[in-house]
Amino acid sequence: MLYFDVGFDPRKDQWAIRVDRGGFLGPIKRDESDISVSPHTSLTEMEITCKPPSGFPPHFTLWPIHVRRSRGLRCIDVFRAMYDTYNVLLTEKEKAQIGGGYLRRCERFFKQRCQDSPGLPLYNEECGMRRVDVLRGRRIFKCVTQDPTSTSWVLQFDEF
Q1: Which of the four, 13, 62, 66, 68, has the lowest number of CB atoms within 10 Å?
Q2: Dist CA 90 CA 65 (whole Å)
Q3: Which stretches make up the DUF6699 domain (predicted)?
């Protein structure tokens, strides 16, 4: 069992992926993060999609996560790619496509992430809303499963 909050960089020790160590969460060990994403084959590329939260504008799809590593994908590669994809500031075009009504419903989750973030919450707010904020609190990694109808993968989050 592991814990990863996509709102924070897993490359930093304070936000490292945590693993259940029999009653306490300890940082993931190097050999654990280097485990291949598949025990059956060596994958060098993955495209991962995330199902939008309920109420998300139907005409707008979430950002696909593209992961590549010629020497075979490791678990840590996938977690880093999730963070890199969802930590991007929303562009004006994305905000317009998502719509003001939905973004207003994301506001409290945006403010919560800013409070949870290192540094000053006001500074984090001034930086602006990020992609992770439109997940409306669904920042905790749950699982990645293969889509049975295609070669892509599906990412699922839990609420924090």
Answers
A1: 13
A2: 16
A3: 3-146
